[in-house]
TrEMBL record:
Source species taxonomy: Archaea, Methanobacteriati, Methanobacteriota, Stenosarchaea group, Halobacteria
PANTHER family listed in its UniProt record: STAGE V SPORULATION PROTEIN R
Pfam families listed in its UniProt record: SpoVR, SpoVR_C
Organism superkingdom: Archaea
Name of the molecule in the record: SpoVR family protein
Positions of the SpoVR-like C-terminal domain: 550-602
Domain SpoVR protein-like N-terminal: 18-352, 477-548
């Protein structure tokens, strides 16, 4: 009689066997569609294992800490009480590792597999992921980090609770890195040895404690620290706060009530957590792009190429509806819609450029000379490509560039199940025509929305390098692959901020019914306030600039010439939660060892002004005020700052240009 573990293992092996063909064919289809994914290893896991993986961020081993238990509990409750369902999890690695929940239906498994292949393509080809490592081995890295930190916790000379508390301190700053720079390891053990030498020399002099306190007190000792470069340090604000603390920070020792050198385990733990922050940064920076990309190609493969069989399609449609219609901000929906808009806009521009080269057609007379209904009909895919079956193979020409001659020969010999996988006999060009976006039912109005202003703009940048005698000749020259080619170009270089900044348009906002909403003091509730693209864009991009977290930099490591740390919040119109900021400063104090300060800007509203504005049915204008929050190890104080001290932190407009300079050259 087999044990429960043996039964479970056999069950997973059976499911894995059933999935061998879908995995193989999904990868082949993805490549035929122009994707280039990392190899993917698929793992079958049960319900509890899936929740553990989600809690661990997609990996099987992470460093010991209470945060993982909290995330596991949250995931379980979300599934149990809120109706959430775990479909998949995949990590950025080479090879990538994807985990499939054994209890999911076959339609769900296929949807996950196609979704994962697109993610693996994004991981491999998006250059932001390359800022961490060109060839990541993340699973081994994170397992090594887990072993190292666990060894510190097991060390009899190190207090386990102290290690966990240290991790808590560092995690408060896990997003305070410079995610736009390539990751580099911080070498060296800091620059405090000279200060320790002075303290040792004073000890050897045998001075009384009274003299030490009166003449050579802690403030005097700190003042002996070498002046970094003879001026302000750092010379420019440092965004990688974790790196700065790793190099220049000290730990606060409660017994001696002074700053002391980091222990080796403290410095190493900080650096390991910093490395993990850089590894996960690209995933946070490309959430909308990445999930939208995967949702787009999943839908293409499962729905339009029939990867979901007839008896699986309703299950798949339900799966897709759950993902795309989940409440709150939905990166899957926004991303998929924006990729589709880019595809349509690119294809429409390609058609317009061809038609504007027809003899006698200009942007001024375009709508008089061109019948877009006829153009739409002419762009329909060749019937031989649109409907492929074993009975229709004779209609395909092996010499046609849209047809894969070798696969066509195999299909005619009965070696390819063309009824199940019709895409196998088509090339990339053939699939581009088969799935040409402008003729799809859901996009049929897109071509006809060509405005006179769009045509003028297109014509302005056209080179008169080709002319066509008539519309038929022009349409024969249309590149049906332009949309997909452009999508892959964008996938390589953008992150969410630049993606939204460049491609979110008024047409997209109107078409997909996006708007902003605000709390209004005049009505004392939330109201829709704008459908203007610039307002929608700013609202969206605030959620992605620095992962939607406050941007904080080290401004001065010797503030007021007292070796205090001064952090500066780069204010973008959104106030800090000062209560949380004070709690974070208490954590940072443990990493700096001396008092820490934070400059920021806050908004102040007078109750009288609010009431007057409400009566006049308008919004009050808040006063922006500079604030300095300081924690000295004992208490938190807050004071106002002159506007001159914080004016450089106030953005006149939000700076979304986050591409590295060399990418813009």
């Amino acid at each position: 009689m087999s044990s429960d573990s043996d039964t479970e293992r056999l069950q997973k092996q059976r499911i894995a066997g059933e999935l061998e063909e879908p995995v193989r064919e999904a990868n082949a289809l993805a490549r035929r569609l122009g994707l280039d994914p990392f190899p993917v290893k698929y793992w079958i896991v049960d319900y509890d294992e899936m929740n553990e993986l989600i809690a661990y961020g997609g990996f099987q081993e992470r460093y010991p800490h209470w945060r993982w238990g909290m995330q596991y509990d949250r995931q379980q409750k979300q599934t149990q009480f809120l109706g959430g369902k775990a479909f998949e999890i995949v990590n950025n690695d080479n090879p990538s590792h994807a985990f499939l929940q054994e209890s999911n239906a076959m339609a769900d498994q296929k949807a996950v597999i196609t979704h994962v292949e697109a993610h693996a393509d994004f991981f491999k080809n998006n250059q932001w992921f390359g800022l961490f490592a060109d060839d990541p081995n993340a699973a081994a890295m994170l397992e090594g980090h887990a072993d190292t930190i666990e060894s510190y916790m097991d060390d009899p000379e190190v207090d386990r609770e102290a290690v966990e508390a240290w991790i808590d301190n560092v995690l408060c700053l896990e997003d305070c890195i410079d995610q736009h720079r390539p990751f580099t390891t911080i070498e060296g053990d800091g620059d405090h040895a000279e200060l320790d030498d002075i303290a040792d020399q004073l000890d050897s002099l045998g001075l009384s404690e009274e003299v030490r306190q009166q003449v050579f007190d802690e403030e005097w000792l700190e003042a002996q620290r070498p002046d970094e470069g003879g001026g302000k340090f750092p010379e420019e604000p440092e965004l990688d706060v974790l790196a700065f603390l790793r190099t220049h920070g000290m730990a606060y020792d409660e017994e001696s009530e002074r700053a002391v050198e980091y222990d080796d385990w403290q410095r190493e733990t900080l650096e390991l957590l910093r490395r993990e922050s850089y590894y996960f940064a690209p995933q946070k920076m490309t959430k909308v792009m990445n999930e939208g990309w995967a949702a787009y190609w999943e839908s293409m493969m499962m729905g339009e190429e029939g990867f979901a069989e007839a008896d699986e399609f309703l299950d798949y449609a339900d799966h897709q509806a759950q993902v795309l219609n989940s409440p709150g901000f939905n990166p899957y929906k926004l991303g998929k819609e924006l990729w589709e808009y880019i595809e349509n806009a690119t294809n429409r521009r390609e058609v317009a450029e061809r038609l504007l080269r027809v003899e006698g057609v200009t942007w001024r007379n375009f709508h008089d000379r061109i019948d877009l209904d006829e153009v739409q009909a002419a762009l329909e895919p060749d019937a031989a490509l649109d409907s492929i079956s074993a009975d229709s193979l004779d209609a395909l020409d092996p010499d046609d560039s849209r047809v894969d001659a070798d696969e066509l020969e195999r299909a005619r010999a009965g070696e390819v199940d063309v009824d199940r996988y019709p895409w196998k006999v088509l090339t990339y060009e053939g699939l581009c025509e088969r799935h040409y976006s402008l003729v799809k039912r859901q996009h049929r109005g897109f071509l006809k929305r060509l405005a006179q202003s769009d045509l003028e703009r297109i014509a302005r940048y056209m080179f008169d390098d080709a002319r066509y005698a008539d519309v038929e000749e022009a349409l024969a020259d249309v590149d049906r692959c332009a949309g997909w080619d452009r999508m892959r170009e964008i996938r390589e270089s953008h992150n969410d901020v630049t993606f939204l900044d460049e491609f979110l348009s008024q047409e997209f906002v109107d078409q997909n019914h996006y708007f902003t909403y605000e709390f209004t003091h005049s009505t004392r509730d939330y109201r829709a306030t704008s459908t203007d693209v610039e307002d929608v864009k700013k609202k969206l991009m605030l959620q992605f600039t620095n992962f939607g977290k406050p941007t904080v930099a080290v401004e001065d490591a010797n503030y007021n010439n007292r070796n205090e740390l001064l952090l500066a919040h780069q204010y973008n119109g959104v106030m800090l939660d000062l209560k949380q900021a004070k709690q974070v400063l208490e954590r940072v104090f443990e990493l700096w060892g001396r008092p820490v300060n934070l400059k920021t800007i806050t908004k102040r509203l007078d109750d009288h002004d609010v009431e007057v504005a409400r009566r006049r049915d308008r919004e009050p204008v808040p006063e922006e005020v500079g604030v300095l929050v300081r924690y000295d190890g004992d208490r938190v104080t807050t004071e106002e700052l002159a506007w001159d001290d914080v004016e450089h932190l106030a953005a006149t407009d939000i700076d979304y240009d986050t591409k590295p300079d060399d990418w813009l050259a």
